[in-house]
Amino acid sequence: MRFNKSGYSNEELLHLYKELITPRLIEEKMLILLRQGKISKWFSGIGQEAVSVGAVQALNQDEYILPMHRNLGVFTGRNVPFSRLFAQFQGKLSGFTKGRDRSFHFGSREHHIVGMISHLGPQMALADGIALANRLKEDKKATLVFTGDGASSEGDFHEALNVAAVWDLPVIFVIENNGYGLSTPSHEQFKFDSFLSKGPAYGIEAVQVDGNNILEVHKTVSHWAKEIRKNPRPVIVEALTFRMRGHEEASGTKYVPKALMEHWAKKDPVENYEQYLLKGKILTQKLIDNYKAEIKAEIDKGLDTAYAESLPEFKEETELSDMFFPYETRAKAPESKTKTEKRFVDAISDGLKQSLERFENLVVMGQDIAEYGGVFKITEGFIDTFGKDRIRNTPLCESAIIGTGLGLSINGYKSVVEMQFADFVTCGFNQIVNNLAKIHYRWGQQADVVVRMPTGAGVGAGPFHSQSNEAWFFHTPGLKIVYPSNPYDAKGLLNAAIEDPNPYMYFEHKALYRSLSQEIPDDYYTLEVGKAQVALEGNDLSIVTYGMGVHWAKSLAEELPHISVEVVDLRTLSPWDKETVSESVKKTNKVLVLHEDTLIGGVGAEIAAWISEHLFQWLDAPVMRLASLDTPVPFTKTLEENFLPQKRLKSKVTELYDY
Ligand SMILES: Cc1ncc(C[n+]2csc(CCOP(=O)(O)OP(=O)(O)O)c2C)c(N)n1
């Protein structure tokens, strides 16, 4: 291995040496503890330390770095106290996740580290968002994210690189190519020889380094960090390296040919650098001994502190309240009383525009939303007022854009992400349910992102442009869900969702966009999230519903004047308003839960179960449900009309009334 120390002082060379041996010494200790059964799982980075250490040492301390599962050197390089690091590994309170997530699955804003989720690839889009925030602030910072060669097969890899390329985001994508993804060798993972070919493919630069050579890694990353701070753009750095131990300790390395192991053993990053420094008389055996003694003492001290701490006590209230960034939603009244008749679609547009005026750090992203104004024209004309930096046309990649939203949030921005149709959220599903929804619970990071969801059927658009999919998110702890049924609520709830630094799914029914108008305040206002509304008062029975269901219920009530129907519009699905529902059920003693989404496992199932359990003594009839058929949404009018529940509503309500 050839080292080139030109440009480095002896002090710098020794600093890198010390940084390089630190993760190695920690790992050696961890392996002993693992054998003693004192820790449960360990993902070893032995053999790969020069990549993490070289990279983290090349960045400034206030630049974000996004490590994966073998990047211990990033944490030691950012001076994360050992006691906290070990407490984290042991699931203790003084770690970073209050015992809620394991190993390296955490971030720390203080250390400008954003840890991974198990799914690997989604990490890369977060780097895009962080870098976008840096670009918008013009603060000349670089961001660095790691990925393995295995994870490069995930769609997220492609999406994140493509977005970074198109938007010239200052991100260093370090691909640690260690030849295997768990047991799968590279030739079964991809068909190309080197990640260098990915550079031209994305229209960006790509370089390759010997990932076991600390000076080469450090020099290359330093060079590119300087370059992209000055002239923002992404770069791929492929680091060739090798994992000397099993994927995780229990899985072993039997699948690795012996000769390959021996080849890489000779290239050990720590030993080679040590020998180089010894030969050059920059390092002495005495210094090595001193360094090692000092680090080992620190490790032992950190371990003692971590072991002395008991496991966190379970407090249900804390577990639940930590799901969200603490924020109280209060309704804000409009400043003046002036009102204008607005369609549903215009109310959303109005709210979004006023939120953009109010929050200078709000960025709106979506497909075709800039010059074109979005397929539903909600952002029409916005670029003239707010510019293309804040009203961003995105490539066609829901996952990367939602991940970018989270990255923006980490770096101080708010975002609204428009799904062109709610159906397409499936392509960004992982980022929503595993990243946005869980990040605050895991390590206290807010996800200040609103995902706008043009939803619903009745427009002859078939199975992939008509779905109601709120139940997928309703089942996921950590998301707030609002679903307005009228223009007034649409504007007030959108503003409220944007103000709140927590993740929101905002459902807007396409069939209401241009069919429903109402006088709404001209000024900015918000509505309280989590509050239902009695949309129609009645005494004989309650219909608990939301969205289009509110309109079906109200028109049926007109059709059946002999039945006094009460309609409860939930407006917010997560959290839903149990109090208003209870009051209504206690008054009418009969209840139908109605929604446009399909029946099985729908939102109505939860509400009906809750009513049955908690209001049983108030009921004069079984809790009934009505929803769409359990099929995809059909295209042709005659089929779609009968798929939807409206045609069955009259007989269901009559059945309930007669019970
Ligand atoms: C989406 C997803 N699929 C599968 C896994 C299981 N898994 C964890 S790590 C890994 C291999 C990753 O290989 P690579 O990206 O090369 O990183 P390395 O472990 O070699 O450092 C696999 C298959 C996972 N964590 N996430």
Oligomer: single chain
Major β-sheet profile:
7 strands, mixed
Bound ligands: thiamine diphosphate
**Count of individual beta strands:** 21
| Cα-atom radius of gyration | 28 Å
What shape does the CA trace take? elongated
Strand order of the largest sheet: 10-9-11-12-14-13-19
How helix-rich are the residues, as a percent range?
Answer: 40-55%
Instruction: Give the helix/strand class.
Output: alpha/beta
| Discrete helix count | 25
Poorly predicted runs are none
Mean pLDDT score: 97
Strand content: 15-25%
End-to-end separation in angstroms reads 85 Å
Structure description:
With about 650 residues, the protein is an alpha/beta fold. It is built from 25 helices and 21 strands. Strand 20 (about 590-600), helix 23 and strand 21 (about 625-630) form a beta-alpha-beta unit. Helix 1 (about 10-35) packs across helix 12 (about 285-310), helix 5 (about 125-135) packs parallel to helix 6 and helix 5 (about 125-135) crosses helix 16. The radius of gyration is 28 Å and the shape is elongated. It starts with 9 loop residues before the first helix and ends with a helix. Bound molecules: thiamine diphosphate. Thiamine diphosphate binds near residues 70, 118, 148 and 182.
